[in-house]
């Protein structure tokens, strides 16, 4: 279960070797069943790990931990100017103390499995996505929440008999969901269901190809023009980063990576120190589907990252992520959406007016700028690492000069 929240095997191994290692998977399982978001649950696990380290330093046996120890640890954090209010740390530590006590009352055994049949099936699906499909945790969480809704709608709290599913069950669920979901969310829903039915056939739970009866969602996204940030505004936002501060140096390096290399927010968030080859002048980018590729590291981007690493990145952190949060315990960003918040804050601090505040508009801006400089769609697709040229074709809409030559003469107009 711990692998659901942490992709790095070294991190999982480190946490399991800690004082709460025997109980940490039960702890993570409870967080998942309680409906915690991926980011919050990960933070709670890290709080528990830090608490265990403090107990070990204080020579307190984990099996004898009490709520009094929790209070003492919180006071210890506050004395060392580590934020506690609004973090959920008390809830996390009380939960782990409860798990240890219940295990002790059961004779040292880990807390018994309290999952419902639906939750057990979803967890098995999660394991398949992780081990067989190689999906990242954020995508797994997205898929599993839709599958859980579908299974709960069909089987309620009873046994999950996938062999009883029929095409009408799938169609009815999608049709009802379509009334309250956006097109983007609905596309994620049908993709999740197709993936689940593929898993079910792979495991032998179903014989029918139910994935074939999942309806296709009409895609009107290509009717819009990409929301690209003009290069002038990108330069203005970069110039407003206060590089005499740690947070300013971090934000400048992040924005430059996105603007110059067209990286996605999640790719920047998961960038590790070992992914940068300073001698060869390239970085390893882990994109969608965990596909890794080498990209050249421009000198200005390298200088910005170096400035942050030398005078900005917290020295006390053990995280291997390049970019860290500005508050203790100084962990790396847990997802692209978390790093996207830092980008939005940087744009807001710059005072530059933009229609959108997300990181992806910088990526769109790079594509449009390349197109204006004469780059082909194939070259843009290579830089942006699109799996299909069809994805890149949307940028052809911004090349008004080329599109004008394709337009037919208006009847009755000038010859």
Structural features, described:
Helices cover 54% and strands 3% of the residues. The protein has helices at residues 9-16, 24-33, 38-57, 67-79, 89-105, 117-133, 137-155, 167-178, 183-202, 231-239, 246-261, 265-269, 299-310, 336-350, 360-372, 377-384, 389-392, 400-404, and strands at residues 276-277, 282-286, 292-296. A hairpin with a 4-residue loop joins strand 1 (276-277) and strand 2. By secondary structure, the protein is mainly α. The longest helix has 20 residues, at 38-57. The protein is flat and about 80 Å long. It folds into 3 domains: 2-105; 117-219, Tyrosine recombinase, N-terminal domain (DNA polymerase, domain 1), CATH 1.10.150; 231-400, Intergrase catalytic core (hpI Integrase, Chain A). The chain has a 3-stranded antiparallel beta sheet, with no helix packed on it. It is built from 18 helices and 3 strands. Helix 2 (24-33) runs antiparallel to helix 3, helix 3 (38-57) packs across helix 5 and helix 11 crosses helix 15 (360-372).
Summarize, please:
This protein has 415 residues and is mainly alpha-helical.
